[in-house]
TrEMBL record:
Family: Belongs to the class-V pyridoxal-phosphate-dependent aminotransferase family. Csd subfamily.
InterPro entries: Aminotrans_V_dom, Aminotrans_V_PyrdxlP_BS, Cys_dSase_SufS, PyrdxlP-dep_Trfase, PyrdxlP-dep_Trfase_major, PyrdxlP-dep_Trfase_small
Pfam families per record: Aminotran_5
Provenance organism: Demequina sediminis
EC id: 2.8.1.7
CDD domains with a match to the protein in the record: SufS_like
Name this polypeptide is given: Cysteine desulfurase
Organism ancestry: Bacteria, Bacillati, Actinomycetota, Actinomycetes, Micrococcales
SUPFAM superfamilies associated with the record: PLP-dependent transferases (SSF53383)
Amino acid sequence: MLPDLRGDFPLLARTVRNGKSLVYLDSAATSQKPLAVLEAESAFYREHNGAVARGAHLLAEEATEAFESARGDVARFVGAPAEEIVWTSGATGGINLIANGIGLASVGAGGTAAAPFRIGPGDEIVITEAEHHANLIPWQQLAARTGATLRWLPVDDSGVLRMDTLADVVGERARIVAFTHASNVTGAVTDVAAIVARAREVGALTVLDACQSVPHLPVDVTGLGVDFAVFSGHKMLGPTGVGALWGRKALLDALPPSIFGGSAIRVVTMEETTWLDAPQRFEPGTQPVAQAVGMAAAARYLADLGMDRVAAHEAHLAGILRAAVTEIPGVRLLGPAADSGAEVLGLAAVAVDGVHAHDVGQVLDDRGVTVRVGHHCAQPLHRRLGLTGSTRASAHVYTTEDDIHAFVDALAAVRSFFGVSA
């Protein structure tokens, strides 16, 4: 278990509704930031602010060094070489970068080097029914543009992936398999090895949405065997507006860029442009330098805690949380059963009989308990479960058992507050 880290996170000391202490359980949406991150980002602006790779003066040199050093820190955190990390605006930006690059390759961009990315009618793109919209819509749109067919692994009645359908859904025509490492609704951790093995059998590229896993579990992107992975800074205690795309170097060098501008180019004439190698080919324009510095500070903070300890801490809280909510009459836990032994993150999404999720959230908020309500950008999954939304509590390194008990106590009072009979 981790020690009490709340003192590292200034925002957690504030009070909210009617002077109540803040119980922050919305970390799956966005995490709070430790002092180490706040100070790293502020120090960059105070002492080293300059344009990256755009000048020979001292500030430009210092800014460039900070930017590239941050790339190295984030790369080490996920077990990757620095040259395989592309800075993005977040995981959504990273997935779109891949999908749009494949779309450009499919109409001839990138020449022969990009030929392996080309897809069209008769090809298949595979996702899952549990995906966040950020890992669904870009592939949906790519299929529409190219004439490829979109398929998906279904979930069962609890919202867990039906891995028994893997061989049927990922068939010989599959070219891309994009899937989440851990569901932001059910908390279920995906069997990455099984999906990667099947994708390799049919020669498909794999894209991993690691938004929910990188902040909470030890993740080695190279060891997982996927071809691409994306994750966001703001979910791993870092700033908003920055994230990372990891990809195998040969694939990144062959993928056509889809955002264009300065700093990503080798030669520009009035007739044509050639690109730098990855990662710079995907990083045109003004970079999120301070945000990258902050994200690197977050990676170092988590690495210093030890991701094995982080995972154990959150698994302990998950056990308490998921067992407790199943004891509340009229509350349905989404995802694996609390006693299933399945690997899950430290979160629980629930549906309360007779009470809309937004109303649940209001009751909790009045008690100072901050959770996420709605469909969590996963409408197809909720629809499959017969719901329009749910209420989700999610933990991070700063979450305590007292936080979990405060949520459970507030949740247990919801149905009586609205006069819904047990």
